[in-house]
Input
Amino acid sequence: MSMFAEATESRSLKEVLAIVRHVPFRVAACLMIIGLFALAAVAPKVLQTHDPLAIDLRSSLQSPSIAHWLGTDQLGRDLYSRVVEGAGQSLAIGLGATALSMSIAIVFGVAAALSGGVCDSILSRIVDVLFAIPTLLLALVFVTVFGPSVLTEVIAVGIGTAPGYARMIRGQVLAIKGTGYVEAAKVLGHPFPRIVWRHILPNAMNPLTAMMTIGVGQAIIWASGLAFLGLGVAPPAPEWGALLNAGRNYVIYAWWLEIIPGLAVTAFALSLTIIGRHLQDRLEGKT
Output
C-alpha cells in the first residue's frame, strides 16, 4: 500500500510540475500578485505594520522610511497599512459588482436569445440603450440618487457593466442553441429546462470565464473612479479610490499619497487582465 501511495504521490507531483512548467512567467508573477492581495484582503493583520486608523499628527506627511515603508498621510496614518486594509474593500467591490452584472446579464441575455421574436427585440433594445450610456455616467447617476456606500458602489458598477456581458451571453446562447448536441437532446425528448441547464448555459458561460476575471479588475477601476470623485466609501475607510481622493490635495509635496494607491489599483487590475487573457487563450484552444 505504501509503495502504491508513494507512486500515486510521485505521479501527482509530476503532473503539478508539468502544469507549472507550462505557465508563462508573466502569468505566474501575476498569480503571485493576486495571491498577495488576496492575503491582504482575507488577513490584513498578517501584513500590516501599524494600525491603519491610528492618527499621529506628529508623523503627518512623512515620506517613505524604515518606520513607515510607504510614508504617512495628512493625519499621520501609515499608508502601507491603509493600502493593505483597503484591499479587502476593493476586492469585495470588484467581486460583488462582477457577480451582480453577470447575474443581470444572464437573465437578459438568455431570455432574449431563447425567446426570440418580439421579446428578443425588446430586451435587445433595452440592453442597447443601457450599453450606449457610459458606464461611469450610469454609475454616477445611481450613486448620486442613493448615496455613496460600498453597497451602492457594487450595485452602480454592476448595473453599469451588465449590458456588455448581456450582449456576449446572448450571442453565445444563439450560437449554441442551434448546435447538433442541443438538437439531439431535443430529439431524445429531454425537457427544455434541462437542455438549457445542462447543455446551453455551461457551454455559453465557458468562454466568459476569462471575461469575468478581467471584469473584476475593471470593476475595481470603476469603483476607484467613483471614490476619487468623492462618491465612494466615506472616510476614514481606506478603500483604494478613497485613498486617491484623500491624497489629491497633497500631490505636489506628498507624491506617495497618489502614486502608491494608484500603483495598487493598476497592479491588481493589470494582473487580472493578464490572467484573464491567458485563460481566454487556453479556453479558445480547447474549444
Notes: Residues 69 and 80 are 6 Å apart (CA to CA). Confidence is low (pLDDT under 50) at residues 3-9.
